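User: Predict structure, ligand acetyl coenzyme *A.
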Amino acid sequence: VENVGILAMELYFPSQYVDQVDLEKFDEVGTGKYTIGLGQSKMGFCSDREDINSICLTALHRLTERNNINLHDIGRLEVGTETIIDKSKSVKTFLMTLFAKEGATDVEGIDSTNACYGGTAALFNAINWVESSSWDGRKAIVIAGDIAVYGKGPARPTGGAGAVAMLIGPDAPLVFDCGVRASYMTHAYDFYKPDLASEFPYVDGKLTIKCYLNALDNCYNLFCKKMRNTNSNFKGLLSLDGMLFHTPYCKLVQKSLARMCFNDFLNTSPSDREKQFPGLSQFNNHKREETYFDRDVEKAFMTYSQSLFEEKTKPSLHIARNVGNMYTSSLYGGLVSYLVSKSPEQLIGKKFALFSYGSGLASTMYSINICKDMSAGSKLESLIKSLNDTVSMLDKRQCVQPSVFTELMDVRTKNYHTAPYEPSGSIDVLFPGTYYLVRIDEQRRRTYERK
Ligand code: ACO
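Assistant: Predicted complex:
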């Protein structure tokens, strides 16, 4: 099989959001802390009407509906999530209700979990399956979804919620490069969820940033090395048309691109540095591991990389800025944002890299090529068209005051383990076609309906 990759995509984000300007006032932090300091504009959230099963059902149903997918043609369904509401039963098994209705039950795949990395793990499983001897000729679907919520405090404005669904198969317009994925995995307690009685993580904010940037250093250098094995002319960032990142908040992504340039600087021989990086010689003796919070390095390389950021990365941040961190789906929301920012003609033949990071920690950098031939061109056109429809729904959302948002969050928190339970969140406010939680019975079994 050839050109295995993404054939179609769908995105789901909640119909309600809180404005970060309002949240700054409500939280009594300095004006600009969330909007300029973190680079966030709006944060999507779910009331108790939605849970991980319902948002993944919504994304899956939308994908199949918009692309007329016959569920008998799907041989694998994978889910990536860190929103765990059952220690045994997977989200995938809930999604099977749609398949079982059609009598389609011969479907491999199950959930993958490690913080924001699960979606990438699920995606790799699907790609690997299509490229393997186990493949039976059918397509795969990958769903990455999460509800990202934090307790009251500095992490709360970095929440969000959403799900992305992807159809995977051969002859795709978005093709994955083979043999160059670069991973960095190790143990860290930067962000984790050991308290199974709570929806909130334990998070050491500063450590998450250090771990994220350190993982980026490692993945980027290894990725370049692997790319150069197949193409000795590969020049890292300069050979890429786009650079996409897992996006906890947009400011970290801009710093990450600067960090990649700092790596390029360190990897350039001292004699060539002045030519390629004029005026930055004062950093000649700086070390990677000592500069994660070095303000001077950060500032100098942010300035250096400003135009690279505008060109290669900023177009991928639209959804992250307006919805917030969608955890496993964040990187794929970045892909959606990037695609809708361009026309098919602008995208044909382009190459971009993606950096996936999940605390704890698991990370990979890999690359996607946009196919050159015309049949892929028409597939790309319909992919972008359907994504444009979805992304335009950002403007149809309802803005909610921070006080109301906080009340709705308190209801979620208070009832995280209540059973039996009837959610009180509004059904009216949901977008048409959204699945919602009807009730949880005394055996904690959940029932859903579609609006
Ligand atoms: N105007 C403009 N900028 C401001 C203002 C203001 N009035 N006040 C503060 N800022 C800036 C700060 O200078 C800082 O930016 P800088 O680092 O570029 O200087 C930024 O706003 C954040 O403020 P801090 O006080 O440094 O950070 P805070 O303690 O509020 O926490 C953090 C931020 C750590 C990101 C927190 O929200 C958090 O823990 N989030 C969850 C963890 C996370 O997302 N980690 C990322 C990777 S892991 C993952 O994906 C979960």
